[in-house]
Amino acid sequence: MLSKEDNERLTRVGPDTPMGELFRRYWQPVALSETVSKPDGPPVRVRMLGEDLVLFRATDGRFGLVAERCPHRTASMYWGRNEENGLRCVYHGLKFDVEGNCVDAPCVSKTSEAQLESIQRQLKIRAYPCIERAEIVWAYLGPPELRPAFPELDWTLVPTSHRLSTRHIQECNWLQALEGGFDAAHLTFLHKGETSHVSRTIVPTLYEVQQTDAGFYTATGRDMGDGQIYWNTNALLMPAHKIISAVAPAAHMWMPIDDENTMLYSTEFRYDGPLTEKDFDKVRGGRWIHTVNHPGTDISIHNKSNDYMIDRAAQGAGKSYTGMQGLGIQDCALQESMGLIADRTQEFLLPCDIEIVKIRRLYLQALDDLAAARPIMGMNPAGFRMRMERWFAPKGDDIGKMMAERKYGAAARAAK
Ligand code: FES
Ligand SMILES: [Fe+2]
Predict the structure, then answer these.
(1) Which atom of ligand 1 is closest in space to residue 92's alpha carbon?
(2) How far is CA 382 from CA 25, 65, 133, 271, in A?
(3) Residue finishing a domain among 120, 146, 172
(4) Which of 104, 229, 342, 363 could connect to 221 by a Cys-Cys bridge, CB 3.0–4.6 Å?
(5) Domain region containing 43
(6) Å from CA of 92 to ligand 1 middle
């Protein structure tokens, strides 16, 4: 349970909110590169952290991410012409480069060069720096002087053939979606029937959470009943990344669109070779953490408006615990059912919610650090190089020690 004040503090992400300020200190995913692949191609609408923006790829391949409202008379830049290294508002022809400078103002009568220059100087459009990594366009919306180096997330460093990302919109606040990603107990219920994996049959009873310099690193243990514990690790990296221990490994990013909507990015990747046909099938079929979207949109065909196409007959016949297809949709349905912004004053937390409690503490601590101008987590790019694993170990083995050994994966252990 949280106080109303803390719930507000943790969930609101607009430009003038504490959490909004925290998110703006990190690189954020803006778009899959394929949607803006063509220089001088059509601009795309972006809503992130409560701001309406327009993304375009300029003639020279660089990205521009600018405010949707033209600084002249607030018309939408989405209708703009993307031409010769700039986006031109089609209302009166003002043109802006990727840094937001007004580089042409053909509607201004040329009384004098100096006057024209002065008008152009004042007519800047809000623009944010972007870079492309791992077939995703990323932006930094924070103070320029505090921009961190790009995080060394393992999945962004493998070759293109080794990874594939999808995304879809969740109609709820980012925090309840992220909390769902670290809710180990739900696997045994909500996702029952997807596989016969031990995570679907045994409720975890052991939890270990360690703070790292980029977030936290958690281990969940399931007692196999034969003297062995099945452990698996996951990491939360600032501001809202998850590295998932799975075969193949996977990653999530929760990017707040605004207070009530979230863009969930999901990536399949392999360290040691290209993705397999089986991996691709999983993605294309909308299975596991992926969804099948309406063509050209980020909206899943299974969604709130159609009750996620629940199959009550399949549920009744015991073929599916939920009657819903795929982990991603099952998660979406339950996380969205908590309301647009979950009211955490109404909860009754249980011992299995320990990771959820720690997540909230971690973010509250980060907000306190930010407010007090202390260093915040996740500013060291190397702190993001974590690998997650699954393993069996005899009951009683020191989990803290095992986690420390496994933090950077088997290859790193072998190299020592
Ligand atoms: S509103 Fe954009 S140029 Fe006038
Ligand atoms: Fe889930």
Answers:
(1) 3
(2) 17, 27, 16, 17
(3) 146
(4) 229
(5) 28-146
(6) 5
